[in-house]
Amino acid sequence: MNHEGTKEMVKGGGFSVIRVMSRRVFTRATGAVAALFVLGSCATDAPQDTWQPKGPNAEMIDDLQQPIFAVAGIIGIIVFAAIVYVTWHYKDRGQPIPEQTHGKPALEITLTVIPALILAVVGVFTVRAIFDLARTDATELVINVTGQQWWWEYDYPVQNEWGITQPIITSGQLVMPAGTKVLLRETSRDVIHSYWIPALNGKRDAVPGRIHTLRLEADEPGIYAGQCTEFCGLSHANMRMEAVALSKDDFAKWVANQQAAYKTPAEGTLAKEGESVFLNQCVRCHQVSGLKRPDGTLAIAAPDENVWSGAAPNLSKLMTRNTFAGAMFDLLRDDCRDDVWKAESAEFGAKYLAGVSETCLNVSDIRAWLRNAPAAKPMYANPALLAETNGKYRGMPNLGLSESDIDKLVAYLLTLK
Amino acid sequence: MFKVGSKLFLGLTGFAAVNLVAYVIFVERLAIGGVALSIVFAALVGLTAAIFLINEGDSEVQPRDASLTRASMWPLVTAVGLVLFVLGLVVAQVYFIFGIVVVLAALAEWMVQAWSESASDDVAHNESARRRLLHPIEFPAIATLGLGVVIFSFSRIMLAISKSAGAVAFVVAASLVLLVGSLFALRPALKPALVGGICVIGAVGIIAGGVAGTGAGLRAELVEAAEEGHYTHRVCGPEKSKYFDKKAMKTLSLRSNVAAVIELRGGKLTAEVYGFSRAQDTISVPRANPVTFIFRNFDDAERRMVASLGTARAASVPGDDEDESHSDKSAKHETCTQLIPQGAEQGLTITYNKPSIAQEEPFTLSVPGVDGQSIEVLVP
Fold this sequence. Notes:
The complex is a heterodimer of chains A (417) and B (380). Chain A starts with a helix and ends with a helix. Chain A has helices at 3-11, 14-40, 56-89, 105-133, 248-258, 270-281, 303-306, 334-341, 345-353, 363-371, 373-376, 403-413, and strands at 141-148, 151-156, 168-171, 173-177, 182-188, 193-195, 204-206, 212-216, 222-227, 240-246, 323-324, 329-330. The longest helix of chain A is centred in the N-terminal third of the chain and has 34 residues, at 56-89. With 417 residues, chain A is of the alpha+beta class. In chain A, helix 3 (56-89) runs antiparallel to helix 4. Chain A has a five-stranded mixed beta sheet with strand order 3-2-1-5-8, with no helix packed on it. Chain A has a three-stranded mixed beta sheet with strand order 4-10-9. Chain B contains nine helices and ten strands. Chain B has helices at residues 4-26, 32-53, 74-90, 93-117, 123-160, 163-186, 192-216, 220-228, 252-255, and strands spanning 258-265, 268-272, 282-284, 291-297, 306-311, 315-316, 332-336, 345-352, 363-366, 374-378. A five-stranded mixed beta sheet of chain B has the order 2-1-4-8-6, with no helix packed on it. A five-stranded mixed beta sheet of chain B has the order 3-10-9-5-7, with no helix packed on it. In chain B, helix 1 (4-26) runs antiparallel to helix 2 (32-53), helix 4 (93-117) runs antiparallel to helix 5 and helix 5 packs across helix 7 (192-216). The radius of gyration of chain B is 32 Å and the shape is elongated. Classes of the chains: A alpha+beta (417), B alpha+beta (380). At the A-B interface, strand 1, strand 2 and strand 5 of A face strand 3 of B.
């Protein structure tokens, strides 16, 4: 069919109706997408907003991205406007094809030199920011961070100046003093992960067999949310983390509590029965420092024999944290959690250090987790699929606990403060 | 209805279907092999359908004229491939794989040759059709094979001669390639036969050198290192190795993953841990994750660093799996670097599987002969 024939069909009959309708649909769809973008920028509950730096390292990135975004935005608008103008102004209206020419050296050189100059200027500031962000001098606190499917482990090496006289180990929430240059030494036990707390710094990959460093510093006490940003398997989207900044005094209290001796529950209590369940079921993978078996020997977990990554979260002071299961679930009920998250700087430390009380415990999620963990978080839990991992689990399996055992375990876990 | 082409492709499609079904039933339903076989089957279905649609160009099958055929080596090559295939089932996998490759290649060549010989009554045209179809495959394949042989031969030469001679040989070879390449570029009028001749002489020279190198065997240094075994120093006896990584920090793998650098200087043992501004007397390392320590000896005497690892179950080092001496998991064990002279350094990789609290005695790093100095390794 020739061009004219097509035009005639479009002008008359059903085609013109379809064209008008499709144009209307296109206009509405474009408007809807644009509105979504605009509305998206109005979100107030956005803890991982990259445009709200809360520490000097994130501010360094922000100072770089704000002007670059402005320059790129202006260039983008100019280019977009030029495309729209040319597309509209020179659309085919049956006019003769203009004279075709080739080569405008002055214009070509200008259009090459201007972007090159812009990129060179951007490059200078970018490289300087990269080097500044990579600095590790004047570090005040070192924390080892180890990623595995799908949670983060934090261990604090001995640092007497902070009162850390024996290594502290925790998970889910990174606790650090505010206004302090903290250096994370990151690595991974299985696949590549990436550590990212947007309010405190950029991303840094955690790679098996390597140690990468990332400096964090928070201006004020508070909780800063983050997310693994390197696809790492089935529950990558559920591999979250939170950095908790405390005042130096509060951090000292947290350190002291983490090093405090284990307290066994009182005899005859539900928690004591829960301790037995823990010894029978959970201690295969989860360590609770100081926990002893009935014969008086220390209960040593063996995640290296049962878990593919070789590690499972140490639960020694579980209820001093606000999250569990790779920070996917909250240990606190929503109202209690809001109370901590939205606390003023001066009050935040006390509220966080209070830990999880029986009234604030998020009972439904923790019970659901104990009842059937893989149903709550995808984790390759099917025993039939464990041949490739020598029978070792990736994540917590379904332990088949009875409701009675779950009652006991919840009571016991509440004592781990 | 069924002509030569459609019969062939129907047969291939049926063969692919049988393979796919057998694989899914006997091997694994969700394996990548099943996906690959499904794709092969789908492609063959498409090709077969296309052949039916074009009715094979409506060509009639002509009775084959014996004068158009020529002697073929492919039956012989196929037979050799089959022998290798069967031999490989008994002897070694490499023969099996090589046999399959030879059989498949020979069958493809044989099939195309047979097809081309019946394409027309013109022998020259038939040969041209065969070349047009196979040369785009044959030339890259032969070039890859040829280059592989040359590269392998060159590697044999480099492994046979000494390190310094190797450097010279490499420079000479690279210079010759540059020189001859420049000559070809500057003299485009050179006869193709001359260019081909020079290339062939060079390749034959390298292959001959490779054969000689294979005959001479590895240089003494490599033989000794292989006989010594990578982990023999772990017995921590009085042995002294001539060949070890004298500058461990020069290797990328160690530079990027050092938990701590342990230095012996002036009779004092210290640990430099990246991130800490001061030397440490304890090191915290994560559980169940390999960590590497570098030992640097600044002492006058030859020294080695010994890592006390508790029981074999508590910590492991590379090679433990094949080491019978560690079959007793409850036995205490240790590992160590080799004896290294002043100024040298060596890496030690250890995986601590159990926490420190599970140990009766702490995990430590120490140097025999240097009393009162040790670094405690803490595993939370």
